[in-house]
Amino acid sequence: MVSGDEMKKKLIVKRKHRYQEDRDILFDGFADVMKSNDGIKICYTEENKEACVDVEVKADKHQLEIRRLAETKSHMLFVLNEKTQGVLSTPYGDISIVLFTHRYIFKEQIITLEYDIYNGDSCIGGYRIIWSIKEA
Fold first, then answer.
1. Which residues pair with 104 in a beta bridge?
2. Are 98 and 83 a contacting pair, CB within 8 Å?
3. Contact yes or no for 83/104 (Cβ under 8 A)
4. Which of 12, 32, 115, 118 has the highest Cβ tally under 10 A?
5. What burial class does residue 23 get, using C-beta atoms within 10 Å of its C-beta: 0-12 exposed, 13-18 middle, 19+ buried?
6. Are 13 and 26 in contact (CB under 8 A)?
């Protein structure tokens, strides 16, 4: 694929809670995938019981950024072994969250992210998310 070309690709997004056995598939379908010289951008819509959520993922070898657009919007940035800030925008105002990235692997057909969410010094949860990208 030439840099900047947008293509439809088969995408499966799986999520697992790091501290419980909860697992789910966030997306299984076709997504818009655009490669650049140093990374990738993936756009898709998650459809679940609560809402349809437009998701944009930008990833390169250094960091991963997730934007989720629904009634509640979120913007999260992940950098391996670093604490970063995220923002949840709700109808009641913005909420800042702290994220710590334990694992981040960026490859052409798979992206793996493991992170914790903090409130002050307390870990309030954590997830592993895997994006598997295949030819359509």
1. 113
2. yes
3. no
4. 115
5. exposed
6. yes
- Give the tens place of pLDDT for each residue, 74-102: 999 999 999 999 999 999 999 999 999 99
What integer pLDDT is reported at residue 4 of this predicted model?
Answer: 58
Residue 37's SS3 state is coil
DSSP assignment of 45-101 equals EEE-SS-EEEEEEEEESSEEEEEEESSSEEEEEEEBT-EEEEEEEETTEEEEEEEEE
Distant-in-sequence, close-in-space partners of 31: CB < 8 Å, separation ≥ 6 = 8, 9, 11, 42, 43, 44, 133
For 133, the token pair is 């990208």
| pLDDT above 90 as % of the chain | 82
* pTM of structure: 0.91
